[in-house]
Structures are given as structure tokens and as C-alpha cells.
Amino acid sequence: MPNVENWEVLLTALPILEKKSFQEGEEMGAAKQIKLEMKGISIEFPGVKALNQVDFNTMTGTSQALIGANGAGKSTLMKVLSGAYGHYTGEIYIDNEPVSIRNPKDAKDLGIQIVYQEVDTALVPYLTVGENIMLDYTVNDMSSKQIVSWGHIHKRSKDILDKMNVKVSSRKLVSELTLAEKQMVLIARAISKTCRFLIFDEPTAPLSHSETEELFRIVRALKQENVGVIFISHRLPELFEICDDITVMRDGEFVLKESIRDITQNQVVEYMLGRKLGDQFPKIDIRKGETVFETRNFGDGEKIHDIHIHVKKGEVIGIAGLVGAGKTELCKALFGMVKANTGDVILHGKKLRLRSPNEAVKQGIALVPEERRKEGILVSESVTANITAVNLKKFSILNTFLSFKKEKEAAREIIRNLGIKTPSENTRVQNLSGGNQQKVAIGKWLITDAEVYIFDEPTKGVDVGAKKDIFELIFQLAKRGKCIIYASCELSEMMGITDRMYVLYDGMIAKELQTSKTNEEEILFYSTGGK
Amino acid sequence: MNTAKTIQTARAPKSFELFDFLYKYGTLITIGLLIIVFGAMSDSFLQPSNIINILRSISIVTIIAIGITISLSVGGFDLSVGSVASLANALVISMFVWHGQGVWTSIILTILICLSAGVINSFMIVKLKIQDMLLTLAMMFVFQGIAQTYTKGATLSQNMIMPDGSFSTGIISPAFAKIGQVPWIIIIMLVVVAIVHVFLTYTKHGRYMYVIGGNMEAAKLSGIPVNKYRIAAYLMSAVFAAIGGIMLGARVMTAEVNSGAPYLMDSVAAAYIGFAVLGAGKPNAIGTFVGAVLIGILQNGLVMLSVPYYAMDIVKGTVLAFALAITYYKTK
């Protein structure tokens, strides 16, 4: 406990402090633009060179778009800038002064703040909005002060929220907020301290249209305040609406920086991909058979409604749509993860009962789920145990006793066929790279001989090489006459791998498209609610 | 990325190798050291009669701990085993003393009644989704209370005084007493350990349980009937607790109030020590047995060195904390 004398001094000092920080803000508004430069940034993770000699620069008072395909290194670069990865090589200059950013505190002290995509990881749900906004202050700036002044916290956070023109009470619990409001709280936290550069990592992905507009209003206001905004997004139209400059990255390397007025969306896509779309995807002509799998009036009673899809033998159909359109929900419902399914699911002319994944598997449906580590694999088990987990019956005698020899043979075969890079079949899956973990998650379904394979974002967090292997694998399955349902928000994958696709919007099928007769713009048009 | 690089990432850094070695063999080394130390300090410690004595003393702990091991294997936890053992002890003795039943009727009825404890546990945990540790903590008191209410707080034994002042007439069968004596009590323990080891390691069902314990969500999405196996695990846990309670009854031929309670702590410790044995890294039957042996030796040796019984909990609690420390440090 501090002594009383100290306390009073601190209390009286407080308003001055506050005043000063506001003044600082005003001064900054008038201040000259500050340059941020990153030169030759490289970073390596075990087995992967994530960034290779990347240059990046921006200024306060402007908004900079950072774009690249999945795995291009955008997020990694921004994590370096915000101090999350301290082991980079290369130089960072602010205002031509070299700086060293080795931990998040370094970055914050330099006025670099980041709003991560997963807002929930950065917020404490059972504390109030005010406490969350002032968290950095409570953690870092209270120094010898021991008593939390509630009045100060709520007053200061209310000021910030008012300044942002956000109507959320600072006394509300964060757990009661919507996702968009949580994001606002994080932005408020970022600007509660000196903020010269603010990084947004895919902020609009989970937001609705009106929420996005609201976010853009705040971004514009921040620019007015001489904050440098760095915006990572996959949605090109948004970037062209909100950003001044654009930096494109590909495969961990810098590609180009251009003023957004001097470039078109199509050019950006070309730079992002760096090659024609077809290259990545194997092109094999597969003869389609009769319709095998079909849903009628299918829904999960909550998010998705009235789904009519059909899949022919050997056909790859896509489920397109933005994040939140209901792709994952549809995949899970088809796999029996939802109790209150409505409508019919028909396989080979037979109506299926899908009350649990257990029933779904027995009836020939397989799902490679989106959240690989959480839902797809057993990290602490061996590759063998992972691969055989779905069909142990095949490896047991009298349906009870396991045959380790048979398991080993099957695991080795899968490892060989899928090119899983692992020292041995006994290695724990947690020691494999993301792409190889995903191959294990897919591989386990190959020994079940399912009829319908559902893939939910199978290339998420997977490097380019492994991606190609996964596409190859999907084609092999199609060749064997399986039905493939491929859900992804990556438009290029939709175009490359599917024969036909259904575009989901708000839990309903907005449009059915023939892949050969459509393009990315059209998919995006229907995904965003176009009619 | 090439294979060489993957191998590199797969191999643990060198500084961890000593820890890994100690993790794998630490328990066995400790047992060895304890035997040497106690053997040197006390002449009678290494006598065959004392070794049999140790095995006898750990048999009940081991069987109850095996139940906990099974509940741990599906990622659950059963704290109510001690109370279920108390209940089984009271039930089985009362079957003889109050109701004059035969050996088989008494044992089977006792197990069936205790099975209902497992049914309640699994229903509340699996269907109502209550956290296992908290629920079984609550049920621990419920079952303990039921056992006490059933016996009206009295100790049951042959020729006990009934509430109406008469003496009970039932007789505990001599065949039943055999269960609690050497060699049968040790044989039963070894058979249970062997069966559960085979079950967990060599059968499909055991593998499913480990998969569920490792990642319940992934297990569900692999099509494993997760709830069925979780329910089965709590039922088995209750059955093994009941068997432990019955053996306790056979050994002491009475049913004291809360007789099973002291076994909880030892069993939890045995199961957690078992995690590390030979580097299994997960609950397993052999490891649990080794854990029980470690505790048994420690207890026996300390008694011989005249450490008072009331100080024993300090030692046991420390051993448990140590086992937990190793397990969680490893999984960090």
C-alpha cells in the first residue's frame, strides 16, 4: 500500500496527466507526418522461412493496405512490427531513427498498436468495457500506484468512446457485447495510449455491412488524427475504398508497393497470385456419374435454411461464401453435429439419419473440419493413432483387440501416399508442420472408404506446397468416384478445384454456379448479397 | 520443406533429455532408492513377509486407483470413488449381517447398487455437462451420506447390537473372508491390473477412450460415440470402487463409518504417479500399479522407521503434488 501522502499527490496529478495526454493528441494532429520503415525483414520458424527480406513502409496520417494470399506472410510481418515475434532479422526505422522491437511493450512504447483478428483472445469477458479499454494502463502505467480509481477508468474510457463516437456504456460487461462492439473496444484500447500506427488484421471478416461502414468511419477519423493505419484484408473492394496505398506480398516476400489510384483490382490479384490460377490445381478430366448425394429443404434449425444441393459421382462441388455465411454450419449439420436437422439428406436414394457424427460416419460421410488442432487431430497421439482413430474396427480382431501390425501398415501406406513428412509413424502429430497435420487429418478418412467427403477450409494455415498436395488428393478421391463437398472462402480455390458451386449468403443458397462459366467477381457478387 | 528439417523439429532440444530420462524412469528409480534406503535402515523391511504385507496393503488402493485411471483416460475425473468404496463396504457387510445373504448374492447386489452411483455421476457429467471434478466432489458427500444413513452412523459387524436392542444373527461367510486374505487379495489386484491394462492398451475401446481424453472434439468428429464411452468410463470407475470396498469389507470383516475415504487420496496419487511411468504420458494401468507400489513402500517403510501415522498424510500429499508437478510440467 502506498502511503497517504503519495496517494494525494497521485490523485491531484491525475487530471494533469489526462490533460497532457489530450494535448499530446492535439499536438500530434498538427504534427508532421512520421515515417515508418521496415527494411530487409526476415524471420524463420522451425522448418519454414516465413519472411524473406521484406521491405515495408508507411506514414502516419495515411492508410496502407497490406494484401497477399493466405500464407504470404502479412500477419507475420505485422506480428514482427507489433513485437509478437522478437527473433526477426532486419531493421526498423521510425522517423529515420533505428528502433528495436523485440516484445509487445517495445512496440507499444513506440506507439504501434495492433487489433488482432480474434478479438476474444485480447479481451477479458467478465470485466467491464472500461476496464478492458484501460487494461494497458492498469498493467503498465500504474507503476507504484496500488489502488484502482474506478472513476478515472470509466471517465477516461468514456472520453475515448465518445471521441470515437461509439455508443457503448463503459460499465457494460464485455461478454454482453457483439463482435463489432468488441472490436471497437479493442480500437479504443489501442488509442487510449499514444498511438502512431494502428494495425488491423482482417478486421472486417466477421462484420456485417453496416458494422463495416462504422469501422471505416473510425478509420477515417483516425487518419484525421494523424494515425497511420495499416489494414490487412482479403476483400479488395474494401481496400480500394479505405486505403491510400497498397503493399502486396507473396510467399513471404515483398512484391510491390503502389498508390491505390494507380492500380486496378485485377492487377492486385495478379500480383498476389504471381501466376495463372490454373497452375496450382491439377487438371484431370473426371467423368461424372449419376447424382449420389442430395439434400432437400435441409437446415440446422438455426443458422442455415432451405438448402438444396446435389452431388454427382466424382464431382467436386464448392460451398462458397464469406466468413459467417454459414459454410461451417452447413458442413457440421451434414455431418450430424446438429441435433435439430430439418429436411432430408439422401445418399444413393436412401434417406440418412444424421443425429450424431457417429451415425454420419457409419453411413459414409467424412468431414475434415475447419479448426484442425481443436477438432481434427489428436496432437499428443502418434500419426498412427490419428490415422486409425476413425476406423479402428478395421484393425481389430473380434472387434475388440487391436492389431498393432495392421495399424502400422495402414499408417505407413497413408504416409507414403499423401507424402506426409514425418520421421516415423510413431511421431506425435504435434511435432509436424501445419500442412502435414492437415494431411493427417485428411488421411484418416481415406481408410474409411466414405462416400461423401466434406472439406471445411482445408487449406487454412497450410503452406503452398502442402496445399497443392491436398488439391491433388481431392482430385484422386473424385477420380475414385467419391462425392466431394469443398467449403472455402478462398475464391481462387473455388475456381481452381470445383466443378460446380453453391454460393451461400446468410445461411441460404444465393446462387448455383458452373465453375467453367463464372469468375471470382461473380462469386464475390453473390457472396456479398448481390441479386 | 525437406524431411531432414522435419526430423530436426521433431527432436527435442538436448537440455530436455535429462528431464525426459527422469520423467520416464524417475518413478522406478525412486522405488529402487526407497527399497535400498529402507532395506538398509530396517532389517525386517526386505523380509518376504513384509513384501507380501506391502502388496496386501496396496491391493485395495490399486483397485480403486484403477477406477480413477479409467475415468482419467476419457479426460474425466472421479473424486467419488472413496465414498463409493465406503458404501460398498457398508452394503456388503450388511447383506451378511442384517440380511443373511450368501457370498455371491451379497457381492453382486453390492456391485449393482454401486453401479447406480456411476449412473448418476455419468448422467450429471455427460448429459447435464457439469464439470467432472466439481460434480464428483458433490457426489462424494452424497454417497458418503447415503452410506452413513444406511448404517445409521454405526459400525457394522457380526453380532452387532441392532437398534431394537437385539443382536444381529447374520454370519459373514468364511469364503468371503478369504477374499480379503493373502494370497487372494493380491491375486485379485494383479488380475484387475492385467485386465485393465489389456483393455486400455490392446483393445479398440481403450484406444477410443484415450482418443476422447486427448481431444474430445476431434474424437466426436471422427465418429466415435463419445458419450457412450464417457458413460462407460464412469460406470467402470464405480464398479472398481465397489470392488475395492468389498475387498476392504472382506479384509476387516466390519464396515466402519467412512472406511473408504482414506483410499481416495492414495488412489489419486497412484494414478497420477502412473502418468509418467516409462514415459506413457497418459493414465495407464501398469503405471497406476507402480504408483501404488511407490506409495505402499513409502508408507510401510516410514511406519517401520516409527514415523507416526498422523504425519503420513504430509508425505503422501507431497508425493501427489510432486507427481502432478511432473505431469503438468511435461504437458506444458
From TrEMBL, chain B:
Segments crossing the lipid bilayer: 21-42, 54-72, 79-98, 104-126, 133-150, 182-202, 231-254, 309-329
InterPro entries documented for this protein: ABC_BtuC-like, ABC_transp_permease
Single GO cellular component term: plasma membrane
Membrane disposition: Multi-pass membrane protein
Keyword Lipid metabolism among UniProt keywords: no
Major localization class: membrane
Subcellular location, record wording: Cell membrane
Pfam families from the UniProt entry: BPD_transp_2 (PF02653)
GO molecular function term, any single one: transmembrane transporter activity
Keyword annotations: Cell inner membrane, Cell membrane, Membrane, Transmembrane, Transmembrane helix, Transport
PANTHER family with a match to the protein in the record: ABC TRANSPORTER PERMEASE PROTEIN YPHD-RELATED, ABC TRANSPORTER PERMEASE PROTEIN YPHD-RELATED-RELATED
Name under which the protein is recorded: ABC transporter permease
Lineage per the UniProt record: Bacteria, Bacillati, Bacillota, Bacilli, Bacillales
